[in-house]
Design a protein that fits this description.
By secondary structure, the chain is α/β, with parallel strands linked by helices. Helix content is 48%, strand content 14%.
Amino acid sequence: MDTEVEKVVDKSMPRVLLIEDSDSDAFIVQKALYGGMDDTHCTRAITLKDGEDILEKGQTDLLLLDLGLPDSVTPADTYARVKKWADKVPVVIMTSLKDHALARALVRDGAADFLNKDSILENPKHIQHVIDFSMERHALTRKIMQESKDKDSTLSYFMGGYSITK
């Protein structure tokens, strides 16, 4: 294995924020999380506003987001309000909607993944895989973005202060 490849994510105790208004859906998700991810810490918010307050504190490694929340207008509105955190934490969309076009659009817009709630019932390990892979992809993306910024700064220095990305 390449020596430059490093373990990008510390999975010792992922801090998951679940924004979900349905008690039964939250129970299923939390049961799936705690059933296979021993050291997971899951915090639940019932409203988008409560979830935003928790995200502001910066104590979250991954966001599981239900699209149908009582204080948002549409699924797109729900994601638009949390999109600003997508560069800080992976945002996994969870919904009962079976709208593949919406899923693709939200992933294209920055969501880490899209998870149908029925798949959690069918295979509880599925959510664990989604979390692991989303966290890995997110960490690698952040690393690549930082390396790109570092290279731009170096090039900018040698070009007399002119940035190649501006």
